[in-house]
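Two proteins follow. First one:
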Amino acid sequence: MYKIRIVFLLACLVAVSSCVKTYFPIEEAEETEPPYSGPPRIKELVVSHVDENTTNLRLEVEGDDVELGSFVLRMYDFTSAEHIDDFFMHTNNYWYLNGSTLPSKSYNLTDNGIRDLDTTVNVFSYSFDISDWPDTSVYHFSAGWHTRPQTISYKSMSRQFTLVGGKLDTAKSANIDAAEHRVVYSNDTVYAAFPNLFKMNSGLLGLSFSTKAVRDHIDNTGGSMALVSSDGGYGWSTPTSPMYDISWLTQASDSLLLASAEGYIYVDESLRDSLIAEQRVVRDVRPGTIAYLGGARVSRRSATATAWQQHDPIPIPIELSGLMNHTSAASYITTVAGTKLRAVYGRRKVNLNNEGKSEIYFLRSDDDGQTWDCFPMLTAGISGLEITGVDETALVQAGNGNIIAIMRSRPTGNLWSSTSTDDGLTWSTPNKTDMRGFPADAIKLNDGRLLCVYGYREYPMGIRAAVSDDNGTTWDVDNEMIIRKDGQAAPADLGYPMVTELPNGKIFCVYYHTTDYVTTHIASTHFNIPD
């Protein structure tokens, strides 16, 4: 019997001589610990291969008001859907276990409803009939609880698992010898995420990241932090002079610029109707505040200034409803020919209400940033592919001069890539890579190979990497590097790795991580690429 057992840590003993932590499962403390009271949380997920025809899922949630929400079981990537009974495709292009007896489908799975095999309160159980599943079938699932069908602000939590031939996929082990993991920044009251790692002058490394007060990608309550390292990322300190990425430099002395999407602009909720009339992407942030996606701009300043001194708009195509950024150091490059290129993403107005239809747009300048163009990767948009959209994109120029765009796909699953052979003017139809995860960062190594790092939000969650020795045409996932596999986040919220090669050839990778379901922090790993 294969099992995933996910339990909350209730006690820990510290051995002074070795600093080894020993954790005790929740069952051993039930007599002394009072019943949990607080926001709903997943207590346990168990996936069991019962017999040759059956695999069972058992999910237990505890906390206050669990009964007001519902369970949810999502299939987000698969080799084929034909062997899965009881699932339906939602308008967001994911497959869900249907919890409704009505003709209309529902992804809300009621406790003790039609799909629940366990009558215990706050426990959901479902059995897969795997009798006709091929041994080669692969299905990736997310099982959890969410606040629906309530109409309050959406909250959810989930755990991931993969079935291969109907059986639980055994986890890959971390496979990089002598990898050095460090916590760069951690605060129990702060949601630290989205690191931006960049090279500065004089061999320094710069790092910036968000320090939000709430676990939310839209709500901007909180701040940010900047750090600098003079020893290749082993130690960090507060900068004493203005920081900048050397890729922002222009040919003019002491002049910096960065092209970007305006991203979310925060305004009073009274503007909602007018923004919707303009066909803008509008999101709720917090009571009284909404956010909408703006256009694009180029920001300019001197190298000695502490903030951008000038923002000039970049005209965007009329069909766009707004643009969003991926991390600047991953998505902005200056090519060998001197072209400045930024990958951003957004939805056309005709796809305003379909989040899965995002596309890549480029901000491009071939005159050292004096003038800029904004145009789509594909003039006609994405069609005829197994994905509906792409968004967060890393750019890297290979040794042969080609520029490779490595994109997060919708629905999420594998990374997709596109190639430009003319300095970013035109792009090939995206193709599916064998790298599974998102989003990515990519660099050209000193030996000419390409290295791509990416978050992995399936079991076992963490950070992974792969190398290409043919200028990005293929990626060696047979020798995929598993940098971290100890992620425990609810929901599956970790990753956004950034990477650089140090002068001694060692690889330095920084990312945000959660190992206790609670504290999201900035972490790093130094490692060597295995021979």
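Second one, unrelated to the first:
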Amino acid sequence: MKQPAAASCEDHNRLVLLHGWGFDHRVWDGMAAALQAHYQVERPDLRMPDVKDNAISRQGSDGCKTLLAISLKEPCVLVGWSLGGLLAIRLAKQFPATVRAVVLLASTPCFLKRPDWPYGIEPHLLSGLIDRVDRDVGAAMTFFCGLVASGDPSPRHTLRILRAQVVSNDKDSLLHGLHVLAEEDRRADLAAITCPLALILGSNDKLVDPAIIHEISKLRADVHPVIMNNAGHAPFVLKQEETVLHIQEFLHECVK
């Protein structure tokens, strides 16, 4: 097996933040401002097809050109929130020379519940969200933001912030993203990547059960696990400082 390159502080000074479904780079506004005091931060806008294998390896895709140009020419740490975590896993597998660490933030290598993956999203919840998007994009996004905010100590505050940052009204792109969530299974990729891995979850997350840490530790015994108390699916919205601290602690361990 190819060994990862030796780590250095410089290798872990560049953070690339990958947003989740229905949002763009602006969902990272608060986090980026806090992280920029310590790191070089980049937050590309993603298109849902970028998560698929063929899109990542296809140089002709504008979205992939952006990712490759901004994120992967130099050593970096990938921080993937929710659906962005699937992309982070895939990129770490495909570009081991430059991806030096991965932080999965309220994310999982397999979102849908399966017979051998008991902590995923119930299929009826995901299919219901697909139906909602198909009927009324605006109402569907409001419903989704409510799910994301529901585990936070001040869900109305989180909901107001998230609703102001929802940017996608492209039904086809949103539906594609949901089908990615339903179909993608990156467990084998997660087990295969050699770079350090952190998993930061909210204790009250309604979309990614924090108990999934036990399953992921079977794939990666060296995972750096964190459960943030009284936090939902977007813990970085109201618990920005704590989230940044957890990332800093993980990266400090990476270069010891």
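SUMMARY FIELD: The domain at 10-254 is CATH 3.40.50.1820 (Rossmann fold). The beta strands are 14-18, 40-42, 76-81, 99-105, 197-202, 224-228.
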